[in-house]
């Protein structure tokens, strides 16, 4: 664990989907007081998910009450499906509450190398192929993140892997802080998710955060025909 202490902290998780639930369960296992907030009405959310959260001692707030919640929190975890510009997220940002992504949370509990794969197209296929190749070579891994299990779920399960093979989307990278893959793969880039981003440049900037914390000891594998900012890992 990378010096994270969530015990007895009051943490909000924004979004009651797969990633949000995984973050909530991880935080509860670490002794945090957890509230999951979702703008959707409870009747529109998966009943079993809400039931499982409450069974683990997670407080769940839905609908308008979630968007207007004024309780004090030490931190918030942003699910990739929640837009930072949404009323739910703005409620926390306007109060100066620190927000990190579910990907960042999972990373904070990860003690093994990570191979992170991003790209507008082909990242799921590439992530799954890499995982199969590594397992065939005796390097135990799992394809996770934006496919399969969320990063936080893998972190909570504490299985014995040699490396994690993680598909990462721009939505997951928006609120990273220290996320640092040992190897990052940038497959390609094309305009996408413009319902979420104000411009193609904003979308690209979110994806580029995959390199943000890498150092000269890490490796970045990129598409040779694209241009990248100069302040990227030395091993490209």
Your description of this structure?
It is a single chain. With 236 residues, the chain is of the alpha/beta class. The chain folds into two domains: 10-97, NAD(P)-binding Rossmann-like Domain (Rossmann fold), CATH 3.40.50.720; 105-221, Mur-like, catalytic domain (UDP-N-acetylmuramoyl-L-alanine:D-glutamate ligase, 3-Layer(aba) Sandwich), CATH 3.40.1190. Helices cover 31% and strands 17% of the residues. The chain is built from nine helices and ten strands. Strands 3-2-1-4-5 form a five-stranded parallel beta sheet, sandwiched between helices. A five-stranded parallel beta sheet has the order 7-8-6-9-10, sandwiched between helices. Strand 1 (10-14), helix 1 and strand 2 (33-38) form a beta-alpha-beta unit. It starts with 9 loop residues before the first strand and ends in a 15-residue tail after the last strand. The mean pLDDT is 93.
């Amino acid at each position: 664990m990378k010096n994270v202490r969530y015990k007895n902290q009051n943490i909000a998780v924004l979004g009651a989907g797969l990633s949000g639930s995984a973050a909530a369960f991880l935080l509860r296992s670490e002794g945090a007081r957890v509230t999951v907030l979702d703008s959707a009405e409870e009747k529109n959310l998966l009943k079993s998910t809400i039931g499982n959260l409450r069974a683990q001692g997670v407080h769940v707030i839905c609908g308008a009450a979630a968007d207007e919640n004024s309780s004090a929190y030490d931190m918030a975890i942003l699910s990739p499906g929640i837009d930072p510009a949404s009323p739910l997220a703005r409620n926390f940002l306007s109060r100066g509450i620190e927000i990190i992504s579910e990907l960042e949370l999972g990373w904070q509990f990860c003690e093994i190398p990570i191979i992170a794969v991003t790209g507008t197209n082909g990242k799921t296929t590439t992530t799954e192929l890499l995982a199969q190749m590594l397992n065939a070579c005796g390097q135990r891994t799992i394809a996770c993140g934006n496919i399969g299990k969320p990063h936080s779920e893998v972190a909570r399960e504490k299985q014995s892997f040699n490396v994690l093979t993680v598909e990462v989307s721009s939505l997951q990278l928006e609120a990273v802080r220290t996320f640092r893959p040992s190897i990052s793969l940038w497959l390609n880039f094309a305009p996408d998710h413009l319902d979420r981003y104000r411009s193609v440049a904003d979308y690209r900037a979110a994806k580029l955060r995959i390199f943000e914390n890498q150092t000269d000891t890490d490796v970045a594998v990129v598409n040779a025909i694209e241009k990248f900012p100069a302040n990227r890992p030395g091993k490209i």
